[in-house]
Each structure stands twice: as structure tokens, then as C-alpha cells.
Write the C-alpha cells for this entry.
Amino acid sequence: MKKFVFYLLVFNMLASCTTYKTYYAETRESLAAAAVKNTYRLDLSFQELEQLPENIIEYKEIRAVKLSGNVGMDMEDAVFKLAALPNLRVLILDSMQLRFLPENFQKLKKIEHLSLVNNPELDWGKTFEQLADFRLEFMNLSHNQITELPDQISQIKALRDLKLSHNTLDLSQTFFALSELPKLRSLWLDFNEIALLPDEVATLSQLQYLYLDGNKLSALPEAMRRLERLLVMHAAQNQFTELPGVLTRMPRLLFVIFSNNPIAEIPPIFHNKQYALLALVMDGNELDTREKQFYKRMFRRFFIFSAE
Amino acid sequence: MAFYVWFFRIFKPSRKAMVKPLLTFIVFFFCIGGVGAQETLAAGGFSLKIEWIIGNQNQLIRAGAYAFGTVNVGNAGLESGAHYSVYLFTKRHGYASFNVGHQYEFFGMMGWGNNNNLLGSTVAMQPTLAIYNPEGLGGFGGIGFGFNKDFMPGELRKFNSRRGNLILRYSNSQYSFHLNFSNDLHAGLFNGEGTDLGATGSLFVGASEIRGNELRRLGVGFDVFTPQADYLKLPRNPQNSDDGWRNVWQNKKPLEALFHANLFADVRFQNQAWAWSGRLGVDSPKLGAYVQNSIHDSFGLYPRFSWPVQQKDRLYFEFSGALNATVTNDFNHLQE
């Protein structure tokens, strides 16, 4: 058993070393024949391209391609060429004025990271159907003026992390749709003009990381205590005037960021220390100096406490 | 003993940090003392040094004192050390400035063995030099905790956070092997300051050998230095964000781009009167990002730091020469 765990750890380390090529490697902005073997990342954004270069199919090591801003690009041709890249995992298609993904997009099933930021005219229902059996782990749908998230999103079963920043979502409907994603771990709902978080948030019982920054929240629903797996919550730049007591009733919540809220009070329930929380960042609050000192002492057992 | 009393008096703010480790050691000491009337042996040493360090990240002249002692009751043993030094620097952590800083370190270990060669002094992070007794006996296996802090002035002041240490050591009469993990984590006996900035973490694995009257040491280490996160800004820095996937802190000025991840080999030589040491390795932002991202992503406790992952690795080197005056209860290096 120990041997198995050891080999598993070693394998995991080696496997994760692809990060060096996928995200840390030099990003090239054009294709040069001399670099065929050493090109792992390609950024062709905002180059007014209508077609991908023919020779891209020779760059078999490419892991990440950015095509953002090329609004006139022939997407069917682009997908045809990208499908010839066996190691492609990251595809960034931001600000491309897309209305739909081409039918041959199915050829890119190995993609793990897809960004469709600022494509507000995209047919989301059809798009999610096309992505249904992809290996997608992360999808970025920020800045798309989405108000209703089509139910078809629940078909992308592999999805772990979903960014829905800068939209204006109907949350109850969104939460029901997302509750069908068994692997959903992280959800970004920052800058969605949320004033009230509906009780349906509790349907996301699989969620571990929730980002609610830049909204208009002043309270959290008691139903959040049913988010039994939630480890991390960010709610900076909202309108909280006191630290929500429900944070003490969330069984696994460890790390909370509440910076830039007009917090003038920390309720007495935080004094009893019978909760999971171990890190709290609430800089930019309205506590006075004496209170800050008091809470610094009170939260001294925390891994991190900051209330500057 | 006088050095210890002075050390505790001077660093009053650190008393809180000492409480838990000291209580643990005291309980352990009484436990082993209660086993029966066994032979108790104590050994210790004291060292003064002046040292010149030159490297591409640190350039300084340092003067300091180091005390180390052991107590053995039967086969059980306690070891403890305290170090303090003052330094004049022209470069610290890669930042050029002409100024004066000071630093301290304290640690204690408990375990089984019976030793008076004092090789436990080699586990300390800050002092380049150790205290040893070439005529002493060895044999110790144990675990310990400690803490250290560096007080830097000026713009470096914000990086003055205490770090906790976890120490493992095994030795015989001639050789000693140790591992020292240092981090500003604040949890249980690990008494870091919980600030997550500056020299947040390091790992050092070392071996020491007494050969004749000389001490030779070899080790490998990895240490990480990060700037201060700006908690007033949302963690949406695109740098090291995996193309927008991960949350990454913005950094607080000044020194918002001061990153180091040093992976190095460390060689040291010491005899009665003088010593030299050398470190050679790479300062690799990619490696720093890989290690720290793995921790932050896995535990999910924190946004990432904005490591400049597309920056190429740089050479890291540091050399030092030192004069030292060391005495132990069994062996006087000054006379030798």
C-alpha cells in the first residue's frame, strides 16, 4: 500500500511537471521554423488573422493557443488545424464576436481549459451541448452579459472550475443548473451585481471555493451552512457592515477574504472559537484601532489574520 | 547560561512563541528524569564570530554569538541552541542598501542518545558556524522545534517576520545528519508569525563530519522569498494565473517584485580559528512558482503569488570567510 502511495505521488509530481510547458514556457507571438520543437505556447491575439498559418500543424508540442480578438477568423479552418496538435490543452477565444462554435469543434475534446470571455452573442445552450463530453476542467465565461445560464451546462460533467465574473446572472436558476455538475469545485460570481444570495446556493453542496467579490452583498443566507465542503470564500468589495455569523456555522470553511467592506462589527459568536475558520483577511474595514488590536489578539491562533 | 538569560531578556516579544516548545521540553525532561536515578550528563559550548559574506543576493559583515548545550539523562537527551548577530549590509535578498540589521534564532530538540560532541549545533539556520567538540562522543536521534527572526531596516522592514522551524537530526560520534524546515506558518508548535511574506519558507538537508579537529559540512537547500501581498486589491493578477484560471495576489510597493527561489548546494569548513563556506545554485522563479503553487492550489487556502514564471533562471552564489572563538566544556578551541 505504502509503495503504491509513493509511486502515485511520484507519478503525480512528474505528471504535473507539464505545467512548465503549458503555463511557464515562453509565449511566442509568431511561428518561426527554428522553434518547431520548442514552441509550447502561442499567442496570436489581435493580429487580424482570417486563417491560422498553414504550418501550425507542424508544431506538435504546442499546449496553449490564444486567438483572442481575431474577429474575422475562419473558425472551422482554425479548429481543423488545431485538431492536428496532439498536446493542445488550453484554448483562449476571448473577444472574437463568436455566435456559435463550428460543428467540427468536437475534434478538440482533449482541451482542458477553454476561455470564451467577451463573446456575448454566443449561443450558450448550443455551445454547452457541443462541449458535453469534453475533458474541460476550467471554463471562463466572464464579460458575456449572461443573465440565464442554460441547463445544458450540466452536461459538461468534467467541469471543475467555472468563471462567470462580470455577468448579471439569475442566481436561483444558475445554482440549480450548476448543482448537476458533480465535479464542480470552484465558482467565480464576482461583479454580478448580486445584492442578495438566494437560499438555492445550498444546492451547490459539492463546491469548495466560492468567489463573490465586487457585488452588493450585505448579508449571507443561513442556508450557506449546508455548503459542507466549502473551504474558501472571497467576498471583498461588498457592503457587509458586520462579519456574517454564518461563517462560524460552515463546517469546513477555513479561509475567508472580506477586504474592502465597511465592517464595523464582529459579532460575539466569533469569540467562542468553536468553528473551523483559520484565516481571515478583512483589510479596508471600519474597525477602530483599539478594536483591531483586540481582534488581532482574539484571532492569534489563526494561520493568517489581517485587518489593516 | 548567561547568554541564554540575556537572549530571553532581549527578545521579550518572542516569549509567547517560546511557551509551547519550552513546555514540551520541560514535560519531556521531567518524564525522562522520573524514569529513575540515571546518570545525567551536560555539555555545552559558546562561540563568538565575525564573518564576511559576499554573494549576488547578500553582501554583509556579521558579528555574533552562538550558544549550544545538551543534557542527557540515561539514553534520553535534550539539545538547545541560541544565536544572535548584528550585521552591516550592502545587499540583502538582492536589494541594494547600506544599513544595519540583526537576527536571532532559538531551537530545542529532544530524542534518544547520549552525545557530547555538540554536533546538534549544526542544525541552526542562521549561523554559518557551528560549535563542536572533536573529542566528544555522539549518538542522537530526535526531533525539535525552533524559531528565528531577521530584523531588517528601511524598506526591507516589512519582511521582518518570525519563522518557525521543524528539525530532525540523527548522528553518531563522527557524523550528523539533519533536516530543518523553516516556515512562517502559525500552527501548533510551529511558531511562525503567519504573515506569508518575505523569506516565507526554506528546507535544508545537511550532513556534518568531525575529522580530526575540523568540521566539514555538506548540504542542499531550497529557500523562497516573496513580496508582500496587497490585501486591499482583488487577487486578479494575470501573472502566474495559468491564463486566468487561478487567483493571484497583487503586490504591495515598495519591493513588489522581490522574488527568489534558491536551490543550492552548501559546503562549509571550520577549524579552531577560522571557517569558510560556499553556496552555489540557481534562483529559479519557475521552481518557486511550481513549489508554492502546488501548496497554495492543493490546500486552497490562499491565492497564488505572482511569480515571474517566464523569467529565466539566474545563478545564485554566496561565499563567506569567518574568524571564530569557540570554547566548550570539554574542548577549548582557543588553546588548540
Remarks:
- The longest helix of chain B spans residues 15-33.
